[in-house]
Design goal:
276 residues, Nucleotidyltransferase, domain 5, 2 domains
């Protein structure tokens, strides 16, 4: 915090409000952050602003130029969430579709674990996939109605496939690691973009965005760009440093709450799984 103040050439009394992540996330981290924020707000006599983590990921598209115009659609993908969000204003968002079970980031990490890769495995799958053939192996594609997602079936498909192949050849994963990563990644990304394409066509919205940690994935970014070109839509993807969890997106969301006079009291409670 002090480094941020020095960079901005400001001091603590210059702060207008204190924003913090209320939910969702790891409860221990949320409790530490909320406790510190409440103490600082009380000490400085400044208003307190509770921010929803996933709303902040969507808002990360407004941190830098160029910025999307309202309304815009956002595919929000992380370790804990997978959502298609219609953002009508900085504080008005509708979830059009979301995962019914696991998030895509979790699917990446658990698939990586099956391949013997360390946690977090998602970036490693992305790295190995660059040298692989995404068409080498085919995994199940869930048939979920509407704009919702499901990734549990994909993980099961990958698990059973690997078990069968390893029984035949114990070195199967080592021999085909790049192709496996590329094929797994291709299936997961195709599920995301297929649903997002439907959402874009159904709503007619032309400003399309990515957000969340999985938005750093190279194939997703490339596929998203191609999709926007196909739909003649305007693509917006945050800088890599704003895709993963960061203070800037919490601060900017807090800024919009501040402008709206939307404040919290000291009884605001951190929650690991609170919905919007």
């Amino acid at each position: 915090m002090m480094e941020a103040l020095q960079t901005a050439n400001r001091e603590l009394p210059d702060i207008d409000a204190i924003a913090f992540t209320e939910a969702p996330g790891l409860i221990g981290s949320l409790l530490v952050g909320s406790g510190f924020a409440k103490s600082l707000a009380l000490a400085l006599d400044r208003p307190l602003i509770a921010v929803h983590h996933m709303q902040a990921h969507v808002i990360s598209n407004l941190i830098e130029e160029p910025r999307p115009s309202f309304p815009f659609l956002c595919l929000t993908v992380s370790g804990g969430h997978t959502q298609i969000v219609c953002c009508r204003s900085p504080l008005e968002m509708d979830i059009l579709g979301e995962t019914l079970d696991d998030a895509v980031g979790e699917a990446f990490d658990k698939s990586a674990k099956l391949l013997g890769l360390p946690y977090p495995g998602g970036p490693l799958v992305d790295r190995h996939a660059t040298d692989g053939n995404p068409q080498r192996f085919v995994f199940a594609e869930p048939q979920i109605p509407g704009l919702d997602f499901s990734f549990s079936g994909v993980k099961t498909s990958i698990l059973y496939f690997l078990q069968e192949q390893i029984r035949k050849d114990p070195d199967f994963v080592e021999k085909h690691l790049s192709d496996l990563c590329a094929s797994i990644q291709h299936r997961l990304i195709s599920i995301l973009l297929k649903k997002f394409r439907i959402a874009a066509l159904e709503t007619g919205i032309q400003d399309l965005c990515l957000a969340g940690g999985v938005a750093a994935n190279h194939e997703l970014r490339a596929g998203f760009s191609n999709l926007c070109e196909e739909l003649h839509a305007r693509p917006f993807v945050p800088n890599l440093s704003f895709c993963t969890d960061n203070a800037a997106m919490i601060a900017l969301t807090g800024h919009y709450h501040f402008l709206a006079g939307s404040f919290s009291d000291l009884h605001a409670t951190a929650s690991a799984r609170a919905q919007w």
